[in-house]
Amino acid sequence: MASRPNLDMDVLRTFVTGFELGSFARAAARLGRSQSAISTQLRRLEEQMGQPLVRKAGRGLVPTAAGERLLAYARRILDLNDEAVGVVRDVEMEGRVRLGLPQDFAETWLPRALGLFAKTHPKVRVDVRTEHNATIVERTIKGELDLSLAWGDGSDGAHAERLADLPIVWIGRPDWRGVKSLGTAPLPLIAFDPPCVFRSAGIAALDGAAIGWRVSFSSPSLAGSWAAVEAGLGVTLRTRIGLPKKLAALDPSSGLPGLPTIPLALHRAERDPDAATTSLAGIVRASIVAEVGKLGSAVRAPKKKPRRR
Questions:
Q1: Could you give the number of structural domains in the chain?
Q2: Could you say which DSSP state residue 256 is in?
Q3: Are 139 and 116 part of one and the same domain?
Q4: Handedness of CA 221, 225, 228, 230 (dihedral sign)
Q5: Is the pTM above the cut of 0.70?
Q6: Is 149 exposed, middle or buried (0-12, 13-18, 19+ CB in 10 A)?
Q7: What confidence tens digit (pLDDT) does each residue in 236-245 have?
Q8: Using one digit for the tens of pLDDT, what is the confidence trace for 81-111?
């Protein structure tokens, strides 16, 4: 029986990162390698597997059927590798980390990220708060939270890292008939009370397109907003992160105006946080890259800016 090759962990990480970021050029920048080095790694991986793993699609690359199968295994291998390294290195790490994040991530992303952190750091306690965006940032600046995710470019926080720019989309029931079906009636809008970056973006777009609107439902809960949209009380706007299966991102044929992208940033209360916070920040960062990577070309990597100190 022929011996099987040992897959290189660095090559697997490049392979996974490229598809999670939607571009191997972005993977090169993230991993600190040249694009030629990335290409060499991909060729080496294909040689080891004995078949093509990527193919061209337009201007980018997508996985072949074999590539998709390997991608699933590669993610599991990297998770296990990172878990093992974390357990051995930080087995004695103790303490508490206070994490804040928007409601968008509470159900779709949070359990997996915290599960991975709990495996690697069983003695560290994580307290999580899901609140409105402005409250999350304010609490982090005040030191009431150690780490937080928040919508925005991070300019309102002293120690923030911009992770991605995500498109804002109009969201409604799949059978919503569009602006023309309203006649002269104003658009029923479902939104959080101000201040809310999504509400402001939606109202600005509607006013710019001379489309009348009224707030038909307001809830402090994202789940409440989703329920109101599903009940047919109006449309709302958010990113595709956490979008319920019964709702849909409305396309331009709906007659609704285009919307901007919104940045997502990782905030730290301290410039040099303790080991537990630093470790959780790494898991949050990697998990968010994976989550937004599922949106493919709809997500833009942020332009690099000097980190504020």
A1: 3
A2: P
A3: yes
A4: negative
A5: no
A6: buried
A7: 999 998 888 8
A8: 876 776 666 556 678 899 998 888 877 777 8
